[in-house]
Amino acid sequence: MKKIFYLSLLICILIPGELLAWGTTGHRVVADIAEQNIKSGTQKKIARLLDNLPMAYWANWPDFIKSDKTGQWDNTFIWHYVNAPRNQSKEDFIAYIQSVKQENIYSEIPKLERTIADNVSSPEQKRVALIFLIHLIGDAHQPMHVGCEEDLGGNRISVLWFSDKSNLHSVWDSKLIDFEKYSYTEYSHILNIIPKEKKKELQAGTLEDWLYESHTLANEVYAGVNNEDRLSFDYSYKYKTAMELQLQKAGLRLAAILDQVFK
């Protein structure tokens, strides 16, 4: 199994950037922020599962395996998002995602947490669950992963990013983040400069709360763009703070979850 894991990382060079949620940089930023904020005991347990490699190394693996041709991971492709109608109240939004029958990011994150915390789970089961959890907590904070089914979370909304053809989903996956020109370690260390009390504030809430925050941001994003719009400097300026806050929240909340499941 470990050989499959490592070989699958090579697949990343074949995957178009727009298929990678938060892009490779964004997911690594989230994982690195989390790693900077977990307890030392948690870090030791994670290091044993991940062969002493940083969480950022594995953060994009659940996207890379979308190019796997064996079919063994096909059931996981729908775990990365949950669709919901626009502009719902919090009560209606939670009721809606609770009613979705298909597996999704809301249904699977708690299952992954239970697998990691369960003493009956094998090291390999814990390892796979951990890698997916690292990734899906990131996805839960990318607003287009809590978008609308009819446009596939913005994938069907065509835009120009400066002069390049793109779509709204891709802009939020990678264009906004990569526009800053930081490496993932540079960005994660910048975004981790937060007062201790503020970190605790950002970690608060439930998965339902966090997904509703993403839903609310998704509504704002949808309202601010039309099909075939040209997005450039002004769009980056407008959403830079919101994008960075989502990365901070994802990293800090992932750290809190990991401390809980590995206690």
UniProtKB/TrEMBL annotation:
Gene Ontology MF, one: endonuclease activity
Protein's UniProt keywords contain S-adenosyl-L-methionine: no
InterPro entries linked: PLipase_C/P1_nuclease_dom_sf, S1/P1nuclease
Gene3D superfamilies documented for this protein: P1 Nuclease
Keywords tagged on the record: Disulfide bond, Endonuclease, Glycoprotein, Hydrolase, Metal-binding, Nuclease
Keyword Disulfide bond appears in the UniProt entry: yes
One Pfam family hit: S1-P1_nuclease
Any one of the GO BP annotations: DNA catabolic process
SUPFAM superfamilies noted in UniProt: Phospholipase C/P1 nuclease
PANTHER family, per database record: ENDONUCLEASE 4 (PTHR33146)
Protein name: S1/P1 Nuclease
Source organism (scientific name): Dysgonomonas macrotermitis
